[in-house]
């Protein structure tokens, strides 16, 4: 029994090597879909293509409406003994970063090979990972490999614009014993810190003509009023003090000191030069460590800003208000990427580590991403997960984005071995 199992896995890995052209053909097809975000609203066609490909090889698929022109896709190949064996969920996003065609040496939507490098928008972030998943699925079908555990796949939209594609599917109840997000990690096992954006608003109960300014600011003027743009400095100074305090007091392995940051990213206020600004809004971006959560971070910021406002003689009667996050940076002007802590001792991590060592003949690097991906949503919904994908952060979003064929093939063999072993391992193991 064990000999048959090992031979079957060896056959699968040999097939990965023997059919490399099929992997590159799949990646070429995925790259050809111009799924840039922004502008977004352009992924229905690629999701239809993926749906058709998966349906042909026995996956049950479901499409979920998202924004107009965008869809989410879930797929599942039921295992032969689902209740007893581990399930696996693979996740990837089909939207890609915006392209400036004049800055490219090749057509960004046609896969171009030069030596070991593949060029095309999304090859590193992250159509390379999706092509790998789909290639493995096709080989499992071709070789008639029957997995005891459930194999699930999510093809999502919106990651590039902070949109809640993965969140939507997980909120709907999709789950597994372990999940791999195939986003750009240079074949490292990565968790991540979190990111949330927020708006802080100051609003005067009255609107005043610019001619009233002297009465507002001079001794004996008598007008209790304020310029909201000027009062926003109270808020910004409070945020700066909290950010410095975080830098002094907080640490997390894998992050440089001071990675917890509060960036005042955008400010707007006022109506017209003839008016005293009666409203000002500050858009901030907050980065936090993997062991912190959105609720605690936003509460700490609000308490700091409110305390500073209460110390101001005008603001204490007109306290700032807060709006946090959103499901779309494009539609809501807000986003959330939760943090993801890794559990190196989880059986899924141990099994993935074994597959990595067997293929790469070295131990994987376990650490933290300098960026964020949808992997944090798995942590938020208490699903053990890791971000593990081909491609480098330097290539993600870059002009002339490229991916090493050697790395893509190595990644594909690691994932193929892991799928086989994990879905053949019993749930209590």
UniProtKB/TrEMBL annotation:
Pathway where this protein functions: Amino-acid biosynthesis; L-lysine biosynthesis via DAP pathway; LL-2,6-diaminopimelate from (S)-tetrahydrodipicolinate (succinylase route): step 3/3
| BP terms from Gene Ontology | lysine biosynthetic process via diaminopimelate
- Report the Gene3D superfamilies cross-referenced here: 3.30.70.360, Zn peptidases
Q: Which GO terms describe its molecular function?
A: metal ion binding; succinyl-diaminopimelate desuccinylase activity
Cofactor(s) needed = Co(2+); Zn(2+)
Domain (Peptidase M20 dimerisation): residue spans on this chain: 224-311
Catalysed transformations (reactions): N-succinyl-(2S,6S)-2,6-diaminopimelate + H2O = (2S,6S)-2,6-diaminopimelate + succinate
Q: Which UniProt keywords apply?
A: Cobalt, Hydrolase, Metal-binding, Zinc
Q: What class of enzyme is it?
A: hydrolase
| Top-level division of the source organism's lineage | Bacteria
SUPFAM superfamilies hit by this protein: Bacterial exopeptidase dimerisation domain (SSF55031), Zn-dependent exopeptidases (SSF53187)
Looking up NCBIfam families in the UniProt record yields: DapE-ArgE, PRK08596.1
The entry's family comment says:
Belongs to the peptidase M20A family.
- The name this protein goes by in its record: Probable succinyl-diaminopimelate desuccinylase
